[in-house]
Design a protein that fits this description.
Layout: E1 2-3, E2 10-11, E3 41-43, E4 45-46, E5 49-50, E6 58-60, H1 66-101, H2 120-125, H3 128-134, H4 148-160, H5 172-178, H6 180-185, E7 198-203, H7 216-220, H8 225-234, E8 240-242, E9 245-251, E10 255-259, H9 265-272, E11 278-280, H10 309-314, H11 317-327, E12 342-345, H12 357-360, H13 373-380, E13 385-390, H14 393-404, H15 411-429, H16 434-438, H17 441-446, H18 456-463, E14 472-476, H19 477-482, H20 484-494, H21 502-509, H22 519-522, H23 529-550
Parallel strand pairs: 10-12, 10-13, 11-12, 13-14
Antiparallel strand pairs: 1-2, 3-6, 4-5, 7-9, 8-9
Length: 560
């Protein structure tokens, strides 16, 4: 399609366009021309339709010849090119200066891309989205390096910096200052005739009050609303009336399945909830201790309103109703009769996820969190029982990658992400302690794969600073997969659960495994041998320490 450059009229292939005075030659006079004089603007038409851009687009006539217009066009392109080169020069200068400032240039290690900041105030002021960008490593070489000896140098540096230092446990008054509302809601003592930690709380609402109107779990998630609709219907039937007052039974879990992700916790949860004396929260993984009480729904989305402890306690109302029914029954009034129902909670983030601490607690501990999740749980429940399911950390990481990666999954991509994450972890270890790096929110969000979740012994040692060893049961997924009946018996014994009939036991132990690997992920096959060797070297010192703490060489994972 051709157009006249002077008046923008659509031309046919052989049209000489004689009707345009501008096309008649160099002697054409604009002032004398009946078409050109008068209005100095010509509307733009294409295919007999007037084109509109921001209401009306008009093309002003040019009183110079076509050849002059061509030179103007070339001048415009030249100006744009010069402007573009100027912007590119400024960007390159900024990159070079920034690289020199952060140690990105002229460094000995071929994988040193980006230094880990040693300024805690910088991390406090950065947004959650900015922090990942700040620690994003360069992909100049590391994304394609599969040179085992070179990456081994990084691992050797990390290993040389490992120190397992016992953390100092905060006292109770310090905890009260940090969470005064939580301490005002949860009492110091629980009902003596219940195996599960429960207490009665006065309810001041009336019959028209919705007890779950402000519950954040119900407000932010549609899939939980059905549960709360049911709780609303039965709520008044379970209130305890005494001296013209209404009381509701509140409960905390008796035990927690605290970790780790992709280690079989879902399968353990599904089997354990089939036991007649076990109840769980209305939601399998509330993530309240680690995330929701800080206002975190998804960390990449920033912070929302904090979920108060009352919202968390609401999740155990179904179980509390059943416990209350037992407590008020005639059989429970017998002397010495104890309610045997216990409640569990299975958030797989509880053991390891302390990423939010830096935004809420005073950062005066050289990068280490002054308070951990277990400090608060122990303050309220010093007799709580904890169950941990672990697996070979090398295989756990690969399973984690397959489950959470959204696109372009491949063994090569996994290898590249492992190499990048190792580099970031090394950068941190050069300036900070092991605990500071493991609990560092910025580093953990920057790493493409969650290396830190497999450092089991670091977390376990910190839990052992507040809980006794006999309160923690540590299992291996490999043992659970090979002999479900044996591991479930260990769990039943640990929780002091009553005996089961053969039919009940068969239902629990012979049901198919839960949350297994998806078929599309299985098709990718195992990780590269080089990647496995790298991860074996990285996790070896941590597995060695774990085996020493648990007095069990099976946690070395030598045969997997």
């Amino acid at each position: 399609m051709r157009y006249c450059i002077n008046c923008c009229i659509h031309l046919l292939p052989n049209d000489l366009h004689r009707q345009c005075f501008r096309c008649r030659g160099p002697n054409h006079n604009n002032q004398k021309c009946p078409v050109c004089k008068g209005e100095n603007k010509i509307p733009l038409y294409a295919d007999s339709k007037q084109m509109k851009l921001l209401a009306v687009l008009e093309v002003r006539t040019d009183h110079t010849e076509s050849w002059n217009g061509f030179f103007c066009l070339r001048k415009g392109k030249l100006c744009s090119l010069i402007f573009g080169l100027l912007i590119m020069t400024l960007v390159m200068a900024s990159y070079i200066l920034t690289g020199a400032k952060h140690g990105l240039l002229l460094i000995p290690s071929p994988f040193h891309y980006g230094a880990f900041t040693s300024n805690p105030s910088l991390m406090d002021n950065e947004s959650l989205s900015d922090m990942k960008d700040h620690y994003q490593p360069s992909k100049m070489n590391i994304s394609y390096v599969k040179d085992y000896p070179s990456i081994k140098l990084i691992i050797d540096t990390i290993t040389s910096k490992i120190e397992f230092v016992t953390r100092q446990r905060p006292d109770l008054e310090e905890l009260r200052k940090q969470e005064p509302h939580m301490f005002s809601v949860i009492p110091n003592k629980f009902l003596p005739n219940s195996k599960n930690p429960c207490w009665y709380e006065e309810y001041r609402g009336n019959t028209t009050t919705d007890p779950y109107a402000t519950n954040s779990y119900a407000l932010y998630s549609k899939r939980f609303r059905t549960i709360f609709d049911y709780l609303r219907k039965v709520f008044w039937n379970h209130l305890y009336h005494y001296k013209d007052k209404h009381y509701r039974l509140r409960c905390l879990p008796h035990f927690y399945i605290i970790g780790q992700p992709k280690c079989g916790t879902t399968d353990l949860y599904d089997r354990l909830r089939l036991h007649p004396d076990v109840r769980f929260s209305a939601i399998k993984e509330p993530h309240w201790w680690t995330r929701k009480r800080f206002g975190i729904i998804r960390l990449r989305d920033g912070f929302h309103d904090r979920y108060p402890v009352e919202d968390y306690l609401d999740l155990f109302d179904l179980a509390a109703h059943q416990i209350q029914g037992v407590l008020q029954s005639e059989a429970s009034k017998e002397r010495g009769k104890m309610n045997s129902i216990i409640i569990g909670e299975a958030s797989a983030s509880t053991m390891w996820d302390n990423n939010a601490w830096i935004f809420f607690y005073d950062n005066s501990t050289e990068g280490e969190p002054p308070f951990l999740i277990q400090d608060f749980i122990h303050a309220f429940q010093p007799n709580a029982k904890l169950i941990i399911m672990l697996r070979d950390p090398v295989e756990r990481l690969y399973s984690d990658y397959l489950y959470f990666a959204s696109a372009n999954k491949s063994v090569e991509d996994f290898h590249e992400k492992v190499a990048e994450s190792l580099q970031l972890f090394e950068n941190c270890m050069l300036d900070y302690s092991l605990r500071a790096c493991v609990y560092n929110n910025t580093l953990n969000n920057a790493m493409p794969v969650r290396l830190q979740v497999g450092l089991y012994v670091v977390y376990l040692l910190d839990w052992l600073t507040v809980f006794d060893k006999d309160q923690i049961l540590v299992l291996r997924l490999e043992d659970h997969a090979s002999n479900v009946k044996y591991t479930m018996h260990m769990v039943f014994q640990f929780l002091d659960l009553g005996p089961l009939s053969e039919k009940q036991e068969a239902l629990i132990t012979k049901s198919p495994a839960s949350n297994t690997r998806r078929p599309e992920d299985r098709s990718l096959g195992p990780m590269l041998p080089t990647t496995k060797a790298i991860l074996r070297d990285f996790y070896r010192p941590f597995n060695t320490k774990l085996a020493q703490v648990l007095f069990d060489d099976a946690f070395l994972w030598k045969r997997t």
